[in-house]
Design a protein that fits this description.
The protein has 207 residues and is an alpha+beta fold. The chain is built from nine helices and six strands, in the order βααααβααααββαββ. Helix 1 runs parallel beside helix 5 (65-76) and helix 8 packs antiparallel against helix 9. It is globular.
């Protein structure tokens, strides 16, 4: 089992907290300083950690797995934890998709679906391995993401925290292929099933 994670993981988690905690309207925006004391995502602590993680990303430094898991547990105590994890998963997908060579992204976009999918799958597999500590395989018309060492699994008493990976997989497929069908959480470590798995149907992707 890995004892470290890419710093992009804790970074997107904290950036998602900040995004969710931003003022909703102009009226709230007038009280930003007061909100900083009430909303964790607007605190100086979160700001400092985001800066630290951005530097770690630039330098390619890996961080302790438990550090990222600790942030996830902190998020898991929030009533809006599921929304935060979903935001973070989508952001992870968008950032990592953006790191794929523009030429490769363009080729995948213009290819017919039956040719684009294998190329897209290779990139999704690489991203899942590096950033989610997961594996991706194709089973018939479905793509399966399996994560045995989840950063978020102990973050909440329900499977709400698993939406981090659900959102990541769905957004990756949308970014690469333009659309995606339902992503189903078919196995969960919290149910004593050995690992977490998500299933997305390739056949539902249309170009």
């Amino acid at each position: 089992m890995s004892s470290t994670v890419d710093p992009l993981i804790p970074l997107v988690l904290l950036e998602a907290v900040r995004t969710v905690d931003l003022p909703d309207d102009a009226f709230e925006a007038e009280f930003v300083e007061e909100l900083r004391t009430k909303r964790f995502g607007l605190s100086e602590t979160v700001r400092a950690q985001i800066i630290r993680y951005r530097e770690a990303v630039k330098k390619g430094q890996r961080l302790p797995f438990e550090e990222a898991a600790g942030i996830a547990r902190l998020i898991g105590r929030r009533p809006d934890a599921e929304a935060v994890f979903r935001q973070a998963g989508r952001q992870l997908a968008r950032v990592t998709y953006g790191r794929v060579l523009a030429l490769s992204r363009g080729i995948i976009r213009v290819m017919p679906a039956f040719l684009a999918r294998p190329f897209a799958l290779g990139h999704v597999r690489h991203i899942a391995g590096r950033y989610a500590l997961g594996t991706v395989r194709r089973v018939g018309a479905a793509v399966i993401l399996e994560v045995r060492q989840s950063v978020t699994i102990a973050a909440a008493p329900t499977s709400a925290a698993c939406t981090f990976y659900d959102a990541m997989l769905g957004e990756l497929m949308r970014q690469f292929l333009g659309a995606v069908g339902m992503v189903d959480h078919v196995r969960c470590t919290s149910r004593q099933e050995g690992s977490c798995e998500w299933r997305a149907e390739w056949s539902k992707v249309r170009r």
